[in-house]
Amino acid sequence: MKRYIASDLKDMNRRTVYNLIASVREISRAEISRRTGISSPTVIKIIDHFISLGIVTMEGEGVSKIGRKPQIIRFNEDAAFSVGIEFDSRYLYIGIANLQGNIVTIKRFANKPNILFMLKKHLVKCINSVINQSGIDRSRILGIGIGIPGSVDPQSKIITLAPSYGVTDRLDVSKVVDNLEKDLDIPVIIERDVYAAAIGEFMHRKSQDDMDLIFIFMGSGVGAGIILDGRLRRGGAHMAGEIGYISFDISKKIDPSSLGWLESKISKAIADSGGDTQKTAAVIADNLAIAIAAVSISLDIEQVILGGPTAELLGEGLLKAVNRRLPALCLRETKVSASSCEHPAISGLALMVTEGKINELLEGTE
């Protein structure tokens, strides 16, 4: 068993205090001590340390009916930032978000539907442009999160499934990511875009820690990010949420190099619609509602979010059409709603970077 040392306790206390302040935004030292159980002298040291880092500021006296008035501490969400990047078949979106995942600047660039082109040829110049125009000092950038539109292992940096973007076999991009880090002098992570979108949506809705959520992204393909008991579900092969390959046709054989059954149905509905969005929404809703019901019943989840370019194009018509069909297909009330966050993947990627780097941010001598 690992020996428990003083530095572990210090790190844990800092993280506990940070998480509390970030969640409530304003609080007094006394209230921090009361809620966390950490001694007042330790809380004072931690807050003084956070002030020196710019993570919190003192906002003056609060209100108290008796005794001394508490000194209010406010969380400075702009103490540090992270970059989130997502792309589709036409555009590359680069945003900078603060410690709360709130996007402070975003820019769109023309792009090709090819992952290697984006990573090798296009990205460095675009990222530098966004950071330079933001006026944010690079020393305040914790890292960069790149959303991959396909199945990817964030640790090995191997992409296994992204047929719409030129990946039909295992693609190791670890050296490419290493080169990006060297060129930018900023840490870089890669993550599946729909997983990041689920995190971004979950946090933007201020969901409870044990809540469940499915985020369905509809773009050139269809995928889902699944959060169970407040935790992202990846699966053993990092393929959890590949609902585009759900099939209700026994004659349909899965081919990882092409669109899945559900994706094919949606693609055909769009192609055959002649621009009639109402007709397209009705056809897509028939198949999408069945897939949503299957996942909802299997996992006992009632909160389903639709996002992505196709969902945005079809708008309220698609939501209404799906919701009309779900009561007959689900065991419990399940309702689909639109994303509440304009760029949930960028926000989620930034939050993932922050989560991985926050302990480094909180380091220092008290």
TrEMBL record:
SUPFAM superfamilies: Actin-like ATPase domain, Winged helix' DNA-binding domain. CDD domains: ASKHA_ATPase_ROK (cd23763). This is ROK family protein. It holds the Pfam family ROK. Belongs to the ROK (NagC/XylR) family.
